[in-house]
Design brief:
The chain has about 100 residues and is α+β, with helices and mostly antiparallel strands. The chain has one domain (about 1-90): Alpha-Beta Plaits (2-Layer Sandwich). Helix content is about 35%, strand content about 25%. Strands 1-3-2 form a three-stranded antiparallel sheet, covered by helices on one side. Strand 2 (about 40-45) and strand 3 form a beta hairpin. Helix 1 packs across helix 2 (about 70-80). It is elongated. About 20% of the residues are buried.
Length: about 100
């Protein structure tokens, strides 16, 4: 299993809404595709950002190098584009690298 860490930076720092972590987890699951191989999501809310841990199935070595970071970014970007809540609260996710 591959573990990818990402953050969504808040547009306006401040206290996290009570249900925020559950909302973010639900949005990510709603927009995950079978090819993302998403297995689990952990979210930790902070005043200035939301930290996300995405657990993805590891590709078989014969299939080539790991694409987990790219897959995680695609999932975050897809979720951001489709969710008014994410777009309202957070800055657009940027690719790692």
């Amino acid at each position: 299993m591959d573990l990818v860490y990402a953050s969504l930076r808040r547009k306006e720092p401040g206290p996290a809404p009570t249900q925020e972590s559950g909302e973010v987890v639900g949005i990510l699951w709603a927009h995950a595709l079978p090819g993302d191989a998403l297995q689990h999501v952990t979210v930790v809310c902070k005043a200035d950002q939301v930290d996300v841990l995405l657990y993805l199935l590891t590709r078989h070595p014969a299939d080539g190098p790991s694409t987990s970071v790219r897959t995680a970014h695609s999932l975050l970007a897809r979720s951001y584009r489709a969710s008014p809540l994410l777009a309202r609260r957070y800055r657009r996710p940027t690719p790692a690298g």
